[in-house]
Design goal:
Oligomer: single chain
Structural class: mainly alpha
Number of strands: 0
Radius of gyration: 18 Å
Number of helices: 5
Order of helices and strands: HHHHH
């Protein structure tokens, strides 16, 4: 509902309805959205690169645990 979208926006959640989003455009500037296919050559490659054993996620976790 519009009321629900307004409540969400006032609590820092990006509204989905275009009219409500326009009303709150200073708080939520337009985003350039991308797809997994465009950026990572599909889900299979993204999974292997970032989430498999030793992937990007594991590397970040190891680095964070050393701090």
């Amino acid at each position: 509902s519009d009321e629900g979208q307004e409540i969400a926006a006032k609590n820092f959640y990006r509204p989905r309805k275009e009219a409500i989003a326009q009303k709150h455009s200073k708080q939520f500037p337009k985003l350039k959205l991308v797809t997994i296919d465009e950026q990572f050559a599909g889900w299979a490659k993204a999974q292997k690169t970032h989430f498999s054993d030793g992937g990007t996620f594991d590397q970040i976790q190891r680095a964070a645990s050393r701090q």
